[in-house]
Design a protein that fits this description.
CATH topology: Rossmann fold
CATH superfamily: Vaccinia Virus protein VP39
Number of strands: 7
Structural class: alpha/beta
Radius of gyration: 19 Å
Number of helices: 8
Largest sheet: 7 strands, mixed
Helix content: 25-40%
Strand content: 15-25%
Strand order of the largest sheet: 3-2-1-4-5-7-6
Order of helices and strands: HHEHEHEEHEHHEEH
CATH architecture: 3-Layer(aba) Sandwich
Distance between the termini: 31 Å
Shape: globular
Length: 239
């Protein structure tokens, strides 16, 4: 496992770096499904950077409490500063999300905005599988990510842009990942189903809303060595 990127030097500049490169587009992408998240009570924030979405959710939903996980202590300080008077409803965890163990009480919301692209496909799958038992059956998982769409725009514009971002973050933070993971495939394999999807900047940015697959009760079979009972993993893959 590669060490997490060091985002501490960028914490104060992150907002302005984002604005000068993509303007308000990333912010709109993060907030695409915000109205659907206003009934949540226990949320898990994975790598929310300087906390702009966390602060917006806290203002819009006065009853939500958030566990914020980030490997950057400087980013977590910025997140708490941005939360302002709502900071008492945030509990920070300075930890590598790939290794962090969730709390015993289930979350009804997870959000990971422009975070999964820091991980390999195997790490996304392992993270999603570890979180699957830690969320309630009706929980929502909001994801915002870069995507290379299968179009001429994707080949000529999106792919070079994404490659340039990976090179820049590699130089500035030590990030070792160089390719976007197939996060939809990983989330589906871990037992989540896609509820909604919105795109921005001609498909370069995507906002998605996921939910755990409903797991029906296993069918009862007569005891027979030739016809074993259905395994839970098979049910999850079929949903």
């Amino acid at each position: 496992m590669n060490p997490p990127p060091n985002l501490n030097p960028l914490a104060r500049l992150y907002r302005w770096m984002e604005w000068f490169t993509f303007g308000p587009a990333l912010g709109r992408c993060r907030r695409a499904f915000l109205p659907e998240l206003l009934s949540s009570r226990r949320a898990l924030a994975l790598g929310d950077g300087d906390g702009r979405f966390t602060a917006r959710l806290l203002r819009a939903n006065p009853r939500v409490h958030i566990d914020a996980v980030d490997a950057s202590s400087a980013m977590l300080r910025q997140l708490l500063r941005r939360a302002g008077p709502h900071a008492p409803r945030v509990r920070t965890h300075c930890a590598d999300a790939r290794l962090w163990q969730p709390a015993s009480q289930p979350y009804d919301l997870v959000f990971a905005h422009f975070f999964l692209d820091f991980l390999t496909p195997g790490e996304v799958l392992a993270l999603a599988r570890r979180l699957r038992p830690a969320v309630s059956p009706s929980a929502l998982w909001a994801v915002s990510e870069f995507v290379v769409p299968p179009s001429l725009f994707g080949r000529l514009v999106a792919r070079p842009v994404v490659a340039g971002l990976y090179r820049a973050f590699g130089l500035l933070t030590g990030l070792k990942v160089r390719r976007l993971p197939d996060h939809p495939r990983a989330l589906a394999q871990a037992g989540f189903t896609l509820l909604g999807r919105r795109t921005f900047l001609r498909g370069l940015l995507v906002s998605e809303l996921w939910q755990p697959c409903p797991v029906p009760a296993s069918k009862t079979f007569a005891a027979s060595p030739s016809k074993p009972a259905t395994e839970p993993a098979e049910v999850l893959q079929a949903c």
